[in-house]
Amino acid sequence: MKAQQTPKHKRLTVEEERRLNQRVARRLHKQMDETHEGQWVGLLHGDIVVVAPSLDEVAEALTKAEPDSRRGLVFRAGEDSRKKVIILLVGVGWAGT
Predict the structure, then answer these.
(1) Residue 40, strand partner residues
(2) What's this model's pTM, rounded to 2 decimal places?
(3) Cys-Cys with 37: which of 14, 25, 78, 90 at CB 3.0–4.6 Å?
């Protein structure tokens, strides 16, 4: 009999995941601005999954980690965090992939 593996993270609803990632992004933004200015940062499950110079690289890494693009968050370090930027990609995955 095989031992059951427990998932690293409890599977949250899409809305719970969105709120978690937003809280983490707000908390990390200043630190990431100072250490990774101009880099794209990808979050899943409240964890940093990838930091890369291009949005395409972030999209590729996030797709490998989680095919459902609704479950992650991407922001650019160094951008004014007071500005609200919304990118809608409905039904096309991470950054159109």
Answers:
(1) 52, 76
(2) 0.74
(3) 78
Cα(72)–Cα(74) distance, integer angstroms: 7
Q: Identify residue 79 by its one-letter amino acid code.
A: E
> Which structure tokens are listed for 97?
């992939």
Q: What is the mean pLDDT of each run of 10 residues along the chain (97 residues)?
A: 50 91 89 90 94 92 91 86 50 47
Map out the domains of the chain as residue ranges. 14-96
Q: Label the pairing between strands 40-44 and 47-52.
A: antiparallel
**Within a 13 Å sphere around the CA of 95, how many CA atoms are in the beta-carbon half?**
15
Q: Can you tell me the distance from the alpha carbon of 80 to that of 91, in angstroms, rounded to the nearest whole number? A: 28
Cα distances (angstroms) measured from residue 11 to each of 45, 70, 81, 85, 94 = 9, 13, 28, 27, 19
